[in-house]
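FORM 7B: Structural annotation worksheet

SECTION A. Query
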Amino acid sequence: MSPRSIACWIVVITQLFLPLAGQAQDTAAPAPAHLSGYGRQSAAAESAREKQFRDAVVAGNIRENMRRLSARPHHVGSPYDKDNAEWILARFKEWGFDAHIETFNVLFPTPKDRVVELLAPTPFRAKLQEPAVAVDPTSNQTSEQLPTYNAYSADGDVTAPLVYVNYGIREDYQQLDRLGISVAGAIVIARYGSGWRGTKPKVAAEHGAIGCIIYSDPHGDGFYEGDTYPAGGWRPREGVQRGSVMDTDYPGDPLTPGVGATADAKRLAIKDATTITKIPVLPISYADALPLLSAISGTLAPENWRGAMPITYHIGPGPARVHLKVASNWDIKPIYDVIATIQGSDSDAQWVLRGNHHDAWVNGAEDPLSGQSAMLEEARVLGEMHKQGWTPKRSIIYCAWDGEEPGLLGSVEWVETHVSELQKHAVAYINSDDSDRGLLGAGGTQDLQSVLSSVARDIQDPETHMSVLQRSHLVAIAHAKNADERAAIRRQSDLNIEALGDGSDYTAFQDFAGISTLDFGFGGEDQGDQYHSIYDDFYWYTHFADTDFSYGRALAQLGGATMIRLADADLIPVDYAPQAAAIAKYESELEQLLKDQQDEIAERNLELQEGVFTATADPHKTFVPPPTEAVPSFMNFTPMKNAVELLKKSAERYSKALASLQAEDSRALSSQALEPVNADLLRIPRLFLNEKGLPERPWFKNQIYAPGAYTGYSAKPVAAVREYMDQKKWKEAEAQIPQVAHIIENVAAGINKAAEDLETVQKH
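SECTION B. Predicted structure
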């Protein structure tokens, strides 16, 4: 669900470093004397165990998993979705896991009537259909395929003038305001990209539009990028991106916010579900979009609004007039989460969780089965190791989620149901989703940055034969904007872990339950994209993505070894220094945002006063300038800055205590002695939560990590403050600063408690 956008220049850059890679491989330094969280003796055993795991992963098994799971369309409510869940369950049991299926009942609309037609100036009716491709054996499963649609679109039947709004994000409507163009009473057409699709109908409705059409422009998703399918891997002219447009108030089942969608759960009426769009919306291909856009005249679109179709892009309105109709079956459907456990040896075992979803919009080879197939191979090898006598200290739980595509349904409902148990036991949640070839990309909470980087040092990149960590590091250096940035990257030996939004199944763990998370995969070198179309299938993936599954093997090696590292550690292997640095960066970004907005507003007010406008309005229209905006002269960030300093000091104290302990004899790292410290570390991620949630989105409890209300997939760190700043609600933004500061102070106190207990262990 969260495609990675790593540039294709990676291939060229890494080729430059191949000689260095070979040299590094030949002259590699011996393994470090210790692993974080392990005594010397247990570190040696852990290194051997991880090597045993890595060597046992078989790419051919991953290929076979994908072939089987992608054989039929398997969306929520389909027969093959349930069949896949039962097949996955059987595999987990075969491999020795204690496994079961947990079922939830969720609202999942499917279309019964879809119409997009141009009424004027010339009639045209959109096909709204992806044709089968002769060489692709699963593209013709028409009777089982979901039609092209956007789930959770409101029903509606509207006719209106058509207005082109570029990507349909808030900045585009600001441009329309400057041009003197209103979408009130119109149907808008927006291209996919530059933000989550659900933002497009949300913002359109806020500006008075009565309908929304979203199309895939070939500039970013078709022939402009490369040969189209089946000659190449890029989206063909009649390809369509399905997807959810659920609003961002909360993820999961729209009718049961905050509680699991069990059979007896109390449900909202559909009319009261705030995550269903306010206006009807449909996705279309660029073949269907071409006649619509060609019929629009009026204001010429700015240069950066123009796509790659052979037309002159205009904004409108007029003379194009469009009829849009959406009607859905609003049914409750079952979803099937497969939960599989290897019990840990500790009596009150902590949990390490791993997840990837198994449902898809159609056949879903890349999204999600590239990740799911690799995860299943991890589980197979771990099961074999368990049968041979290995038992982890902490329980390992593998989760094959259902219903991710419509809105993270399976994972959210499971977390909402089990939140108390999770907060008592869960150390971390490790997620993957779609994955291809190329560079390792990772996001999550930065307390896990060091442990993931340590594991990644031992995973070989299939193309360059350097480690996946080294390859990422070298590419980052080569892509640095300037010498200072290059020097900073050279000083950092770890992966750069970015904050996560809500693009996949980590969301409920991080944002609702307060659990440390990671999400990773490979990308940037696949030869095209068929995201959420019928062509995302086994034939396409094996011809244009990770064709030999070598990167699928690397993904399984990384995921499984990370699970082993976290599950077997004497002391939970967290490092708070990267997290403290990241939070300090988020605070400084807020200060810079204020300065930028002050400068922007002041400049715009000056233009208004002088009668100078940055965009040219239609000379035949009477342009009424908007009123000048108030410029905030000051916001008091001092409470947050002070809290961040406390956080840095506590992280430094913990790092020193850990380094001192690990420098001593390994007997100091006994499980009994470390039990109080592990209990401290387990609680720290929960301290990021405020049970009241974000000011206007109470489901999201985490006060540092959250998606933006208008970004969806993308993170908006310190959202309680930042989103008010984005809306220029300065008083409201400033009022949130002390509350966020209090959360950071609590986290700092929690880390200090862990450091104190660790120092006590050392003294004894």
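SECTION C. Observations
The radius of gyration is 26 Å. Residues 2-31 have pLDDT under 50 and may be disordered.

SECTION D. Sign-off
Analyst initials: ____
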